[in-house]
Each structure stands twice: as C-alpha cells, then as structure tokens.
Amino acid sequence: NRLLQPMIYNMDFKEFCQQYVTLRNYQQKAKKELFRWWNVANNILYQIPTGTSKIRLFTSIIHDINVWGL
Fold first, then answer.
1. Residue 42 to residue 28: CA distance in whole angstroms
2. What pTM does this model have?
3. Distance CA 22, CA 4 (A)
C-alpha cells in the first residue's frame, strides 16, 4: 500500500529553516528540530507546553515552507 510506505525526498528539509528574530530561543530550537525530523519521517507530532506561542512557531514554519514553494 503506497499510503503506508514512507516517501523519500531528494532534499534536506533543514535547508528550509530560516532564522527569525521574533522567535524565542526555545522556539527556534524547536523549529530546527521539526525540520530535522522531516528528513526522517513524513508525519511529526511535536508537543510544547501551553503558553509557548505555538501559533507563532508554526506560522514561521509555514512561512518557510511557502518561501521554498513546497
């Protein structure tokens, strides 16, 4: 079944991660971790505590992906 097989990409997703001054250090670290894990798996669950600005973190990730046109 194609849905169960991992997709193999010929790119390094860490290249998409951009540095933002609006992210706090722990958010930038989490963002780098997410991009690093996309090299290993297609679906990632990342849990961070309440009040750590998840929306700002994931908005910056979506921005990076859009910059690369993915």
1. 20
2. 0.65
3. 37
